[in-house]
């Protein structure tokens, strides 16, 4: 797995995984959710509808930090209300 680090304006770094085999599965799950018109999710919704996406969020979740997943086409980001919102880039 190739990993790169991107530095943001606020000098934080984000790990970017470029060839993880699950990346295609995550992208597909996000695409299906978006096509179904679903844009707002709680953790239980994600667990029920997108197991690979849930596993990724669970494994990388950090309280009091920005959480979510960003692919080449979609963003699923947690907001302050505790819900995750899906947008297309």
Distance between the termini: 25 Å
Task: Compute the number of structural domains.
Answer: 1
Rg over CA atoms, rounded to whole Å, is 13 Å
Helix and strand content put the structural class at alpha+beta
Alpha plus pi helix count: 3
Q: Give the oligomer, counting copies of the same chain as homo and different chains as hetero.
A: single chain
Total number of strands: 6
Identify the overall geometry.
globular
Low-confidence segments? 1-8, 10-16
What does the largest sheet look like? 4 strands, antiparallel
Strand order of the largest sheet: 3-6-5-4
Explain the overall architecture:
The radius of gyration is 13 Å and the shape is globular. The chain has helices at residues 23-35, 43-49, 51-60; strands at 3-7, 13-17, 40-41, 68-70, 74-78, 84-88. The longest helix is centred in the N-terminal third of the chain and has 13 residues, at 23-35. A hairpin with a 5-residue loop joins strand 1 (3-7) and strand 2. 34% of the residues lie in helices and 28% in strands. With 89 residues, the protein is an alpha+beta fold. Helix 2 (43-49) crosses helix 3.
Question: What keywords describe this structure?
Answer:
disordered N terminus; two-stranded antiparallel sheet; alpha+beta; four-stranded antiparallel sheet
Task: Reconstruct the topology from this structure.
Blueprint: E1 3-7, E2 13-17, H1 23-35, E3 40-41, H2 43-49, H3 51-60, E4 68-70, E5 74-78, E6 84-88
Helix pairs in contact: 2-3
Describe the structure concisely for a colleague.
The chain has 89 residues and is α+β, with helices and mostly antiparallel strands. The protein has helices spanning 23-35, 43-49, 51-60, and strands spanning 3-7, 13-17, 40-41, 68-70, 74-78, 84-88. The protein has one domain (22-88).
């Amino acid at each position: 797995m190739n990993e790169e680090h991107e530095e943001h304006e606020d000098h934080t770094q984000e790990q970017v995984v470029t060839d993880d085999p699950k990346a295609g599965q995550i992208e597909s799950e996000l695409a299906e959710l978006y096509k179904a018109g679903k844009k707002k999710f709680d953790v239980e919704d994600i667990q029920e509808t997108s197991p690979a996406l849930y596993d990724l969020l669970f494994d990388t979740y950090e309280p009091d930090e920005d959480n979510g997943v960003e692919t080449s086409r979609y963003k699923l980001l947690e907001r302050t209300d505790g819900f995750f919102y899906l947008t297309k880039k």
